[in-house]
Amino acid sequence: MSAIGNDIDHAAKLLSEGEIVGIPTETVYGLAGNAFDSNAVAKIFAAKDRPAFDPLIVHIGHLSQIDLLAKEIPKSVKSMLEELWPGPLTVVLPRQSIIPDITVSGHEKVAIRMPSQTMALELLRNLDFPLAAPSANPFGYISPTKARHVIAQLGDRIPYVLDGGDCDVGIESTIIEPMGVDCNVLRLGGLELGKLAPYFNNFNRMLNKSSNPSAPGQLAKHYSPRKEISVFERKEEFPESNTATYILFDSYIEGIPEKNQLILSKKSDLNEAASNVFSFLRKADEMEGNEILALKLPEVGLGPAINDRLYRAAAK
Ligand code: AMP
Ligand code: MG
């Protein structure tokens, strides 16, 4: 069983020895290993049962490390990253050959991010290699936003989980691929697209490519609980049920027991809703009742990214 603690030096030692470790980030908990060590990366894929075609994001602690990992980086992209990193933004760039094929699933590009979570940053800055880290959950299941979520699902497969408390953002990073003055959006996530508007002319959303297995952040079905879940645009569309668990944005529905209703943000704050969505999906999965009924959130701010998670969780 994994140990759990807040010993950054211990995590660094394990990682330097080629082990894999659960780490906090501001998005979701990651399952980290040395991105330059094929064996460590293979352990990540094995622990998660992650298909080998699903490339990992490489995490760095200093902007200068980006040149070690990527090439042909436009100046404008670097100045954007100076503004927006550390934070929930991942950029996909042409890769340097130092990165083993397994880390990027054989792609010619690499996905890179600098997380802002303080323990993660300190850990990365203490290491002389970057960390490959997907979310610390079995492939396809709900992402972990608390250290105990990691222990519950991967505890018997990894030696240590670094506990940094609850994840602030609570959903994965936004993933973009800069294409000159335009930009491909590969995944909606913790950074609103509006924050990227100053840096690009057009955004091409490439979010639903389930035929293209190179980018499972884009798979139609992902983030799924064990129970059946359905998402509705309006509460009037909910089917009648005495046993369902409801996931709602900011208010209860009359006539349904409140204990069956999980409210993502009573103060109608989409950032708070994002930070709760995965843990509420887990809670709903563990409650009595056989199904989960969710109501689509407003399509502003982080709303589209949260709705993306709900619809993928519900995909057949
Ligand atoms: P996660 O599942 O949070 O680890 O995020 C990994 C996701 O990042 C993948 O499923 C892809 O959608 C995306 N990704 C990672 N590396 C690349 C890459 N080299 N090219 C394109 N997309 C990538
Ligand atoms: Mg994931």
Structure, described:
It is a single chain. The protein has 316 residues and is of the alpha/beta class. It folds into 2 domains: 203 residues, DHBP synthase (Alpha-Beta Complex), CATH 3.90.870; 87 residues, Rossmann fold. It is 25% helix and 20% strand. It is built from 8 helices and 15 strands. An 11-stranded mixed sheet has the order 1-8-2-3-7-4-6-5-9-10-11, with helices on both faces. The protein has a 4-stranded parallel sheet with strand order 12-15-13-14, covered by helices on one side. Strand 2 and strand 3 form a beta hairpin. Helix 1 crosses helix 5. The longest helix has 17 residues. The radius of gyration is 19 Å and the shape is globular. The structure holds adenosine monophosphate and magnesium ion. The site of magnesium ion has 3 residues, from loops. The site of magnesium ion (MG) has 3 residues, from loops.
Residue windows where pLDDT falls under 50 for at least 5 positions: none
Tally of individual domains: 2
Estimate the mean pLDDT confidence. 94
Shape descriptor reads globular
Strand order of the largest sheet: 1-8-2-3-7-4-6-5-9-10-11
What value does the Rg take, in angstroms? 19 Å
Instruction: Determine the strand fraction and express it as a percent band.
Output: 15-25%
* End-to-end separation: 33 Å
| Gross CATH architecture of the largest domain | Alpha-Beta Complex
The secondary structure category is alpha/beta
Number of DSSP strands? 15
Output the number of helix runs.
Answer: 8
Give the name of the CATH superfamily of the largest domain.
DHBP synthase
In CATH's first tier, which class of the largest domain applies? Alpha Beta
Q: In CATH terms, what is the fold-level topology of the largest domain?
A: DHBP synthase
Bound molecules: adenosine monophosphate, magnesium ion
